[in-house]
C-alpha cells in the first residue's frame, strides 16, 4: 500500500538562515501510530507544521495521499487534523459550538451528527453545553482533539499531547489516542518522553538538530533494549579464549581480565548457566560479576550525542 504521507529530502531554512530540518525522508503508513521523539528545538514542530502547510519547505517535497502539500494545499490540509500544544481561543463558547465551528473552517457543511460522534468518542458528550473555560485541563485537551477531528481528517498530528500534564492525565490521553487509531485514523505525535513513545507508538522516529536519526518499529527497538551484558572479572588474565567457549561470542577485555557475554533477556534461555558450567570446565574462575542493560533511553542519548 502507498504511504499516506511521503516526505522526501525535506529541508527548512528559516529567514534568519537557521536550518531547522535537514533533508528528512520518511514514509508514514496508513493506520499507524508514529512517535517523533526528540529534545527541545529538534525540529519536530517544524516538521509537523510543514506537512500541515503552515511552514513552507525550502527544499524537498511532501505528499499526502499522493497530493503535493504545496500545489494541492487545500486538498491535503483538509485530510489533516492538527492538535496544537495549547488551547488559545473560544474560552466563552460551548464545547459543541467550538467543535462545530472548526468543521466550517475546512469548508465542510454543518453536520451535528458528526460533531456528536466526535464528542462521544472523546467522552465529551455530557460536557457539550459547558463553556470551555469551565473545563478541567484534561477535558480541554480532549476539546483540542475534538476540534482537530471535526472535519473528519484521515491523519491526526498531536504536538506534545501530554507536555506538562500529570501521569494520570497522560495515561488517559494514551487511551484516547489508542481508541482513535481503532477508528482508522493515522496518528503522528511528537514527544519528549521516551515512555510515551514506548507506550503507544507502532514506530518511533528519533529527531535531533533537524535530522531524522532513525525510524524503527518499536518492537525492534525494544529488542535492542532487551539485550543485556554479563561481565565477569577473572581471577587470572587470559591471552585467548579456549575453543570450548567460541559459541558464546564472548568479548575479552581489560587486558584479558574480563569477559563480557551479551544475551537476550526475552529469549527462552539466556545461556548463562551453560556458560558458567563451560567456564568452570575450562578452568576459568572469576572473582566478581555484574550485568548491565542498554535502555531505550541510553540508545536515544547515544544517538543524540553522536549526531551533535
Ligand atoms: N520562525 C523561526 N525562525 C527561526 N528559527 C526558528 C523559527 N521557528 C523555529 N525556529 C528554530 O528551529 C528549531 C526547531 O524548532 P521546533 O519548534 O521545530 O523544535 P521542536 O523539536 O518542536 O522543539 P520543542 O520540543 O521545543 O517544541 C529551534 O532551534 C527553533 O529555535
From TrEMBL:
ABC transporter domain sequence ranges: 5-234
Domain of life: Bacteria
Keyword Nucleotide-binding among record annotations: yes
UniProt entry tagged with the keyword Nucleotide-binding: yes
GO molecular function, one term: ATP binding
Keywords noted in UniProt: ATP-binding, Nucleotide-binding, Transport
Name used for this protein in its record: ATP-binding cassette domain-containing protein
Organism: Oceanomicrobium pacificus
